[in-house]
Amino acid sequence: MSYTAEDIARLRAAIAKGASQVKMGEEQVTFRSLAEMRSLLSEMEASVAGAGSASRQHYPQFVERP
Question: How many Cβ atoms are within 10 Å of 22's Cβ, its own excluded?
């Protein structure tokens, strides 16, 4: 699922209010805990932040030492 900045704002507002339900698009989402909400918020922020940037992969370099 692709998230929007609006989805992030809704979830942040729900967390600030202490609500456990958020309407995201056409769905009403009920969370089990604040930890679950925060976890999704982190995932959403990473997804939105990564949408505009290129993926980077890092490969280890092995060097011989004398």
Answer: 20
What pLDDT digit, counting tens, does each position of 11-29 carry?
999 999 999 988 877 888 8
In angstroms, the CA 5 to CA 43 distance is: 12
Nearest in space to 21 (alpha carbons), one of 13, 29, 9 = 29
What is the spatial distance between Cα 3 and Cα 22, in angstroms, rounded to a whole number? 14
Total-model pTM: 0.68
Of 28, 10, 32, 12, nearest to 20 by C-alpha is 32
9 contact partners, CB below 8 Å, separation of at least 6: none
